[in-house]
Amino acid sequence: MAAHDSGSAADGALTRPWESHDFGRTVHRMPRRVARPSTVEEVAELVRGARGEGIGVAARGRGHGMNGHGLVEDGLLIDLGDLDDIGAVEPDRVRVGAGATWHQVLAATTAHGLTPPALTDYLHTSVGGTLSVGGVGGMALHHGMQTDNVLALEVVTGTGELVTCSPTRDRELFDTARAGIGQVGIIVRATVRLVPAFNHAKWFHLAYTDTAAMIAGQRTLLAAGTPSFLQALGAFDDTGTFIWSIDAVFFTDVPEDVTPDILGDVHATEITSDTLPYSAFADRVAPVMELRHQSGDYWAPHPWLNLYLPDAIVDAELPAVLAELTPQNMGSTGALLTYPIPTGKVTTPGIRLPEAGTAWLIAVLHSDVDKQTDGLATWERRNRDIYDRLRRSGATQYPISPPTFTAAEWREHYGTHWDTLAAVKDRTDPDRILTPGTGMWN
Ligand SMILES: Cc1cc2nc3c(=O)[nH]c(=O)nc-3n(C[C@H](O)[C@H](O)[C@H](O)COP(=O)(O)OP(=O)(O)OC[C@H]3O[C@@H](n4cnc5c(N)ncnc54)[C@H](O)[C@@H]3O)c2cc1C
């Protein structure tokens, strides 16, 4: 097991050590120690040691969180990067180490013509990291979230025990470890559901300048149910006009030069298309992140906002959010992402969606916050204001990014799931050492 003292590792251009911040770079907490175990038994031993020492423990996947939940002041940070084993690929499942990235999982499974049914947009996050929050992407219209597509978990609890849980084995632990933000255990392995993978992605880009037309277009496509993948991404162009592009993607084995009839009903101002190999489509955000590296934005603060809106308010509230954005405060590579999710497809109890048939993810993904006149403090205030306003109309937060919740807000967030979470927490982490960065039990 490799371990090093805090401050011994630095991350490229950073002035602060990597273990003291996440991708958000809005919260900084310095652990007492970092350990990089290579077996699940070592994870259990580390947790038992930390419990004996009376310090907090947090798991580190790939550090792409944005609110400091995975940081631990004067505690133990367990970097799971070496727990990236991929087991034998079976026709309907694969058992993987929680530190593996979805990119690694996809590479292994597509070699057998298989894929996890639900992928996040960015694949270079860890299996344990996204299963701890949800894992949502443009395939949610058919498959829900990644937490809805996991068959079993192996978890190290806050007492250092290794426990396997599933729908038929310690169901309460299974239901609270998924989307449980590391509160009841550290996920060390997951058995992920697999389905046949198509060879290609036929990707239609539907352009809009009118937000209402874009929303209507996505509703039409959702009702038809024919795209394999559905999202819309918007950004300011060079003239300062905000342009939406619905990405309606149809997975296929044999690419054909045919435009599906449904695209005649979505009233886009322009329709263009590409055909990509399925794996290249799935990994499409990696080049975007490379651009953020090149521009330096990767190292800037990212107080992104991720909310789920009820269908009933999206027509009024998405334009209201958009009205707060400008070419300056979105930065050079900033974007606004939105897509509908049928709530019936999401069965993970820890995922809190609005009480409605359809929820809309809206994600404000600005860039260059360090170079803006708005700056971090303004964005934090704006995020809080937007969240507070929309929460009153039934919106919920995807808790990967600000605003930071108080303990009372966590309780409200989890709603009817809270009592189960608290009971499992009492059982599996009686000293409350796991993932203290959420502030959930303060
Ligand atoms: C560019 C970018 C694109 C993204 N796109 C998407 C997207 O399309 N869909 C989506 O759903 N999310 C997306 N996210 C958010 C991201 O998936 C989540 O923040 C995820 O938790 C990050 O995984 P990670 O491995 O980097 O976890 P980390 O940032 O290392 O950890 C995140 C949280 O999970 C906990 N944790 C990590 N591993 C474990 C474990 N094994 N057991 C228990 N707790 C653990 C940590 O303690 C921390 O609280 C994106 C983030 C970025 C930066």
Automatic annotation (TrEMBL):
<dbReference type="InterPro" id="IPR006094">
    <property type="entry name" value="Oxid_FAD_bind_N"/>
</dbReference>
<dbReference type="GO" id="GO:0071949">
    <property type="term" value="F:FAD binding"/>
</dbReference>
<dbReference type="GO" id="GO:0009690">
    <property type="term" value="P:cytokinin metabolic process"/>
</dbReference>
<dbReference type="InterPro" id="IPR016170">
    <property type="entry name" value="Cytok_DH_C_sf"/>
</dbReference>
<keyword id="KW-0560">Oxidoreductase</keyword>
<dbReference type="InterPro" id="IPR006093">
    <property type="entry name" value="Oxy_OxRdtase_FAD_BS"/>
</dbReference>
<dbReference type="InterPro" id="IPR016164">
    <property type="entry name" value="FAD-linked_Oxase-like_C"/>
</dbReference>
<keyword id="KW-0274">FAD</keyword>
<dbReference type="GO" id="GO:0019139">
    <property type="term" value="F:cytokinin dehydrogenase activity"/>
</dbReference>
<feature type="domain" description="FAD-binding PCMH-type">
    <location>
        <begin position="27"/>
        <end position="197"/>
    </location>
</feature>
<dbReference type="InterPro" id="IPR016169">
    <property type="entry name" value="FAD-bd_PCMH_sub2"/>
</dbReference>
<protein>
    <recommendedName>
        <fullName>FAD-binding PCMH-type domain-containing protein</fullName>
    </recommendedName>
</protein>
<dbReference type="Pfam" id="PF01565">
    <property type="entry name" value="FAD_binding_4"/>
</dbReference>
<comment type="similarity">
    <text>Belongs to the oxygen-dependent FAD-linked oxidoreductase family.</text>
</comment>
<dbReference type="InterPro" id="IPR016167">
    <property type="entry name" value="FAD-bd_PCMH_sub1"/>
</dbReference>
<keyword id="KW-0285">Flavoprotein</keyword>
<dbReference type="InterPro" id="IPR050432">
    <property type="entry name" value="FAD-linked_Oxidoreductases_BP"/>
</dbReference>
<dbReference type="InterPro" id="IPR016166">
    <property type="entry name" value="FAD-bd_PCMH"/>
</dbReference>
<dbReference type="InterPro" id="IPR036318">
    <property type="entry name" value="FAD-bd_PCMH-like_sf"/>
</dbReference>
<dbReference type="InterPro" id="IPR015345">
    <property type="entry name" value="Cytokinin_DH_FAD/cytokin-bd"/>
</dbReference>
<dbReference type="Pfam" id="PF09265">
    <property type="entry name" value="Cytokin-bind"/>
</dbReference>
